[in-house]
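## tool: complex_structure
## caller: assistant
## args:
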Amino acid sequence: MSHFFSPLRILTIVLSILALLAPFFFPWQFALGVGILAAAFFPPIVILTGTFIDVLYFGTKTFPYFTLLGIIFSLISYFVHQFIKTRIIS
Amino acid sequence: MKKQYSLRHKYRNGNPLTGTPVVVFGVVLGIAALFLVLRLVFPAVIIALAEPFWKGGVTLEAAVGGATAGMGNAAMLAKENTQLAQQVASLQNQNAVLTARSQDLTKLLGGTNTAETSMQGIAAGVLARPPLSPYDTLIVGMGAKDGVVVGATVTASGGIPIGTVQSTTAHTATITLLSMAGHTTNAWVGESRIPLTLAGMGAGAFTATLPKAAAVNVGDNVYVPGPGAIPVGTISQVESDPSSPSVTLNIQPLVNIFSTTWVEISR
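## result:
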């Protein structure tokens, strides 16, 4: 139980929620920054941050660049996590 | 002999492209794809979901602004308040004089008085403005069901045109501002109404090029066609290169789009 509510897990949840809400309240630059920060703890979340920026502020005929950016940052974060776990990066 | 457990061994021999992380990525990608499809097929749903958050953000911004405004020096604020009240009274008087003069001239020359018809449009509250929305776009809370049409002219306070309606949903509309980078507008400058082409520079600002012989000055008004000539900005800087026969005008808009809360959309 205490492991489930560990500080790291709480921080992950808080940052993930902030990353989802940031596109509604802040400019896209700040929202994407929060998303990248949250991706350090939960990599897939930045995909949704990018998607929200695309659907909220860009027309239906524009390419979803921010979703693509979110996928790229998410993959980078995921592989960095893996490399850290395998001690390739200390 | 029992092999010693090794964290490195476990993760190095595991395939990072399978298992729980892939499932999680798949779910998140699925949710993202769903939102993108919704954006394409039912854009009004996205706006309807976002509207409470935007309104909450506007309320929060106003509350924070109100709270921090009271932190200034009381005496200084009182003095500033008195000065501003005097300025408002003076401007109201000037407005009354100019309105009367305009009406007299209209009667003399014929035609309709724009002041009488100034509120024929649709008043729309701004839900998102730069830098929240992309630069030089506004999202307002009136849409197709309220009579907003694509291409309609949008004006800010004082009847100053600021842009046109780019797209609409049932209850919202996206407005492209005249100052969008790459957008050009025919205009005039100065009392002699020298024609020029305004080029949008983004963030509400414009630039234009004129021959040196035009002899425009900092502070000259820039006008766009409307009913007559409507001022949209003033020249803030004139850049002159000795080797060039023309000058570049930097134009500061009269309307601050970063603090615009209401606009009027023509029917």
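## assistant note: The two ends of chain A are 29 Å apart (CA to CA). Chain A touches chain B through 33 residues (CB under 8 Å). Handing back to user.
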